[in-house]
Specification:
By secondary structure, the protein is an alpha+beta fold. 35% of the residues lie in helices and 10% in strands. InterPro entries: AGC-kinase_C (IPR000961), Kinase-like_dom_sf (IPR011009), Pkinase_C (IPR017892), Prot_kinase_dom (IPR000719), Protein_kinase_ATP_BS (IPR017441), Ser/Thr_kinase_AS (IPR008271).
């Protein structure tokens, strides 16, 4: 039991790290040495900055300093940080933080994602941030995807004003309960699959499904969030090849650095379902090189404490050959029609008519019991609600501001009709 606790603690700390930082650490360390040539090839990737420079060998010229920031099609062009009272840190990422905020005018609560432009530009991640914004704009019609109310920017920061979801990360609940019973895992997997199927219908591949990016709302329904690694414009038979994701959930074709398609999301769905049923992702090892070797070469092993239907869908989703993977031929329709989901009425599911198996029992917006104290104990930065005096903005900050032209957004009223 002690060894299992140590393993879980190590696992939880490790997966808080972004993949770029993770690969950079691997590239400068010999502690993950592995004899398998394919794994050595993966671990010998160039550091992320160098990789980004290779990908941007012919960058477009920088915007003219005379250009003004374009607020975009916004019905709220005057939005500013001081509109909000920032209450608590509820999440952290590579480029900034997510804060619980109350709007000063209407007292509504929001999750405001605040990103540092300098950090984004330093790692050449502008495209991912703008892609996240673009995907958020398309989410207004699906019940299991987080909604964007509007976005705005200052010279130094970007702000996403998002739905406030306070039932906790799926990761947080798994951490506390170790694993879920099969009916609960099936319910969550169905709602996640519905969200992925909707994104695929818009030719968007999600690419970063993991329990940290899956939230529960106040009733216990799934809400998918964090669209920074989404890839747009992937047709049903289209592929992409960017090496990205989270180490524990990387599909074999991504590790092989081969072109991959939307079935990469179904692999990740299988990995999350496996983790919900067994407590750790499939093929997991504390030694990352060994874990990669397992993903590429080790047969899937399923313990006997789950139903035959659950075993069958895991074998289908965690098929190493993507052309044989469940979902390859008919995408979400194949997932929906699998026997594992026979108890699910999909129309009732998307209408939120099915009672969630777990109710977070939150008392209101100020109830933060399901957020990790690692976040909520952190003081709210005093700078987060400041709008700098434009006369004091340096040339480098102006350059950062101009890199995100068109970021700001507020929906027209008919978006909600």
């Amino acid at each position: 039991m002690k060894d299992r606790t140590s393993l879980l603690t190590s696992f939880m700390k490790q997966r808080r790290m972004g993949l770029n930082d993770f690969i950079q650490r691997l590239a400068t360390s010999n502690s993950y040495a592995c004899k398998h040539p394919e794994v050595e090839s993966i671990l010998n990737l160039p550091p992320p900055q160098q990789e980004a420079e290779l990908m941007n060998a012919n960058p477009s010229p920088p915007p003219s300093p005379s250009q003004q920031i374009n607020l975009g099609p916004s019905s709220n062009p005057t939005a500013k940080p001081s509109d909000f009272h920032f209450l608590k840190v509820i999440g952290k990422g590579s480029f900034g933080k997510v804060l619980l905020a109350r709007h000063r005018n209407d007292d509504q609560f929001y999750a405001v994602k605040v990103l540092q432009k300098k950090a984004i530009l330093k790692k050449k991640e502008e495209k991912h941030i703008m892609s996240e914004r673009n995907v958020l704009l398309k989410n207004i019609k699906h019940p299991f995807l987080v909604g964007l109310h509007y976005s705005f920017q200052t010279a130094e920061k970007l702000y996403f004003v998002l739905d406030y979801i306070n039932g906790g990360e799926l990761f947080y609940h798994l951490q506390r309960e170790r694993c879920f019973l099969e009916p609960r895992a099936r319910f969550y997997t169905a709602e996640i699959a519905s969200a992925l199927g909707y994104l695929h219908s818009l030719n968007i591949v999600y690419r970063d499904l993991k329990p940290e990016n899956i939230l529960l709302d106040s009733q216990g329904h799934i809400i998918l969030t964090d669209f920074g690694l989404c890839k747009e414009n992937i047709e049903p038979n289209g592929t992409t090849s960017t090496f990205c994701g989270t180490p524990e959930y990387l599909a074999p074709e991504v590790l092989h650095k081969q072109p991959y398609d939307r079935t990469v999301d179904w692999w990740c769905l299988g990995a999350v379902l496996y983790e919900m049923l067994y407590g750790l992702p499939p093929f997991y090892s504390r030694n990352t090189a060994e874990m990669y070797d397992n993903i590429l070469n080790k047969p899937l092993q399923l313990k006997p404490n789950i139903s035959n239907a659950a075993k069958h869908i895991l074998e289908g989703l965690l098929q190493k050959d993507r052309t044989q993977r469940l979902g390859h031929t008919d995408d979400f329709e194949e997932i929906k029609n699998h026997v594992f989901f026979s108890p699910i009425n999909w129309d009732d599911l998307t209408a939120k008519k099915l009672t969630p198996p777990f109710n977070p029992n939150v008392t209101g917006p100020n109830d933060l019991r399901h957020f990790d104290p690692e976040f909520t104990d952190e003081p709210v930065p005093s700078s987060v609600g400041c709008s700098p005096d434009s006369s004091l903005i340096s040339a480098s900050i102006k350059e950062a501001a101009e890199a995100f032209l068109g970021f700001s957004y507020a929906p027209s009223m008919d978006s909600y009709l």
